Amino acid sequence: MNKIGIFCIISITLLAVVLTACATTQSEKKTAEGTYDGELNILMLSDAGRNGSYDQRLIGEWMGVYADELGPEFVISCGDLFHYEGIQSTRDPLLWSNFESIYSHGELQCPWYGVLGNHEYRGNTQAMMDYTEVSRRWNMPDRYYTFSVPLDDEVADSERVRFVFIDTTPLIGKYRAEQAKYPDVQLVDPDTEVRWIDSVLCASNEKWKIVVGHHPMYTYDEKDDCEQEDMRARLEEIFRRNSVDAYFCGHIHTFQHIRTGQDSIDYVVNTSASKQRAPQRGPLTQYAGENSGFGLLSFDEGTMHYTLVNSRGEREYEIERRK
């Protein structure tokens, strides 16, 4: 067979794979029916980058099914989209194998907003931001950043949602102590970042205040306790004083919903979108799940609604806040 024939076969095969991946069956559509559908809908994932292995590709397909049902405004990545060593440049093949080829559904071609995880810090973190200028959907304008979203074109400023995306790895001492492994953490002054977080939240007059990072402030897991202790020492008082509604993160590869009883903040670890671990539970646990999956975050004028969707496409757990 000549080269033209081989090329045609390969092209047809690739097209068939893409069409199969993007197709939504009637049974899948039925699974997603009845999902909470707000004025503002967002998909959220964390710890996904496994080149499609484990449950990553399956979860990417379910994300497409739910996106087809809800029409999300954007997608949030809570970090570690690129295991294990981050990316090296805006031409790194991992950008295709971990991101572009996995989340290929048409409704997932909306804007994506991400934060850096500890695995991204093993690579070239600047390339993550530079990819904003290459991709038509990836958005990471800085290491930490913020924006406000209206729930409706006609609502007042007080009916908007303030999103604050933070860079957590430089806030944790153990990463700063390993300069050879995480050299880019030295590019961030943690005190400057914390002052910025406080100033943004303090100035916010939006009804909803949502913070997104990678490392948890509260969780039960086998990770080093020092990670959570450093996070709480720097941010807990700021979150409480500025009436943050929810903090969404990843890192531990399980789903956990925690409320401390000392404030009204929902602390949500948004499970893993590829390889999950067995969860642990403690006295502050509202719910813990072992399934991989992703989150759906929706807002109406007086409601915030979060749904955990597992790798079987099932709506496993829901959180609702009203004000």
Describe this structure in words.
With 323 residues, the chain is α/β, with parallel strands linked by helices. It has a single domain, classed as Purple Acid Phosphatase, chain A, domain 2 (4-Layer Sandwich). Helix content is 28%, strand content 23%. It has helices at 3-22, 26-32, 56-70, 94-100, 125-130, 173-176, 190-203, 225-241; strands at residues 40-45, 74-77, 112-114, 138-139, 145-150, 160-165, 208-212, 246-249, 255-258, 266-270, 285-289, 293-300, 303-310, 315-322. The strands form 2 sheets. A 7-stranded mixed β-sheet has the order 4-3-2-1-12-13-14, with helices on one face. It is globular. Residues 2-21 have low confidence and may be disordered.
Task: Spell out the blueprint of helices and strands.
Layout: H1 3-22, H2 26-32, E1 40-45, H3 56-70, E2 74-77, H4 94-100, E3 112-114, H5 125-130, E4 138-139, E5 145-150, E6 160-165, H6 173-176, H7 190-203, E7 208-212, H8 225-241, E8 246-249, E9 255-258, E10 266-270, E11 285-289, E12 293-300, E13 303-310, E14 315-322
Parallel strand pairs: 1-2, 2-3, 3-4, 6-7, 7-8, 8-10
Antiparallel strand pairs: 1-12, 5-6, 9-10, 9-11, 12-13, 13-14
Termini gap: 67 Å
The CATH C-level name is Alpha Beta
Mean pLDDT: 91
Find the count of extended strands (DSSP E, 2+ residues): 14
Radius of gyration: 19 Å
Please name the CATH architecture. 4-Layer Sandwich
Outline: globular
Strand order in space, largest sheet:
4-3-2-1-12-13-14
Question: How would you concisely characterize the structure shown here?
Answer:
The protein has 323 residues and is of the alpha/beta class.
